[in-house]
Amino acid sequence: MIPEIGHFSIILALWVSVAQTLICFGGAVRSSPRLIAFPRYSSYVIFLLTLAGFCCLATSFLVDDFSVLNVASNSNSQLPWPYKLAASWGSHEGSLLLWVLMLSGWMSAVSLFSKQMPDEMRSLILGVMSAIAIGFYLFMLLTSNPFDRLLPPAVDGRDLNPLLQDPGMVIHPPMLYMGYVGFSVVFAFAIGALISGKLDSTWARWSRPWTTAAWCFLTVGIALGSWWAYYELGWGGWWFWDPVENASFMPWLCGTALIHSLSVTEKRGSFKIWTVLLSIITFSLSLLGTFLVRSGVLTSVHAFATDPERGVFILGFLIVVIGASLLLFAWRAPKVGLGGNFNFISRESALLANNVLLVVAAASVLLGTLYPLFLDAMGLGKISVGPPYFDAIFFPLMAPAMFLMGIGPVLRWKNAKTLELATKLKWAFAISLVSAIIVPILMGGWSVFVSIGLLLGFWIVVSGLVNLLEQIRRIRMGSERTIFQVINSLPRSYYGMLVAHFGVAVFIFGVTLVKGYEEERDVKLAVGGSVELSGYRFSLASLDDLIGPNYNGIKGTVFVHGADGKLVSTLYPEKRFYHVQSMPMTEAAIDTGFFRDLYVSLGEALEDGSWVVRVYLKPFVDWIWGGAFLMALGGLLAISDKKYRSKRRSVPNQATVSS
Amino acid sequence: MLIIAVLALVSLAALLVLKAFKSNLVFFYTPTEVVEGKVPVARAFRIGGMVVDGSLQRKQDGVSVSFSVTDTIHAIDVTYEGILPDLFQEGKGVVAQGRLSENGSFIADQVLAKHDENYMPPEAAEALKRAREMKLSE
Question: Under an 8 A CB cutoff, do A610 and B63 touch?
Answer without folding.
Answer: no
